[in-house]
Write a structure and sequence with these properties.
A hairpin with a 2-residue loop joins β5 and β6. The chain has one domain: Jelly Rolls. The N and C termini lie far apart (33 Å). The chain contains no helices and 9 strands. Helix content is 0%, strand content 42%.
C-alpha cells in the first residue's frame, strides 16, 4: 500500500481503509499546499496534536517550523495558514466520527 491509497493521508483510526482500525486515535500524514488555510472548524470530543514534518505554518501571528508542534483542544477553532508546502503529522484522540463542526 501507499499513502495515496488512504483518504487524504489518514492511516490509523475508526475508519476504512486504515492500517489499524481503532477508536483510540486517528493518525494521518497530511500534505498541505502553500497558501492553504484552516477553515475554522473545531472538534467537541477530541484533542488534535500536529507536528510539522516539513514546511512552514502561521497560527495567531506565530510561525511554526519543521519539528514544531501545535495543539487544538476541544472547541478551539482551526485557523492556520500554510506559508510553504507542508507535510503535517496529525494525531487526534480519541477517534470520534462526526466530530467536525463550524
Amino acid at each position: 500500500m501507499k499513502l495515496g491509497d488512504f483518504y487524504k493521508g489518514w492511516l490509523v483510526g475508526n475508519f476504512k481503509p486504515s492500517i489499524i482500525e481503532t477508536k483510540d486515535l486517528d493518525l494521518g500524514i497530511l500534505h498541505l499546499k502553500s497558501g492553504e488555510c484552516g477553515d475554522g472548524h473545531f472538534h467537541k470530543e477530541h484533542t488534535e496534536y500536529n507536528m510539522i514534518i516539513s514546511g512552514l505554518a502561521m497560527i495567531n501571528d506565530k510561525i511554526y517550523h519543521a519539528g514544531d508542534f501545535f495543539i487544538y483542544k476541544p472547541y478551539e477553532k482551526s485557523y492556520v495558514k500554510y506559508l510553504e508546502d507542508t507535510i503535517l503529522l496529525v494525531i487526534k484522540s480519541p477517534s470520534t466520527k462526526n466530530d467536525k463542526f463550524y
